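Worked example 3 (structure in, sequence out).
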């Protein structure tokens, strides 16, 4: 299997798992009153550090936006505006695969 295919698969799987972790943490806090962030913080910091090693600041910011901001948005249209170097373009940004497509289309700095 080609390296880019493996990277895409692992990225998508990781994003799905991170969203599930966030959902579980929210559930535990709302339903049980238990704040899991104390226990998960260091693990999530390691994962974010690995993202920082692999992705540019702009790419990492988009990943964080998808993981932590998008779930809190009301009436979000599933799109994000990015610059292609000349113009601002609107792209689909609703699924982990779409996030990969956007992030991987940006130049690594």
């Amino acid at each position: 299997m080609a390296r880019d295919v493996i990277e895409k698969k692992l990225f998508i799987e990781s994003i799905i798992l991170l969203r599930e972790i966030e959902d579980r943490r929210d559930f535990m806090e709302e339903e049980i009153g238990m704040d899991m962030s104390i226990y998960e913080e260091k693990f999530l910091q390691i994962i974010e550090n690995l993202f920082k090693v692999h992705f540019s600041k702009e790419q990492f910011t988009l990943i964080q936006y998808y993981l932590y901001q998008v779930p809190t948005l009301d009436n979000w249209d599933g799109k994000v505006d990015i610059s292609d170097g000349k113009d601002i373009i609107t792209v689909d940004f609703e699924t982990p695969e779409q996030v990969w497509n956007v992030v991987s289309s940006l130049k690594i700095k």
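Notes: Residues 3-105 form one domain. The first strand starts at residue 79 and ends at 83.
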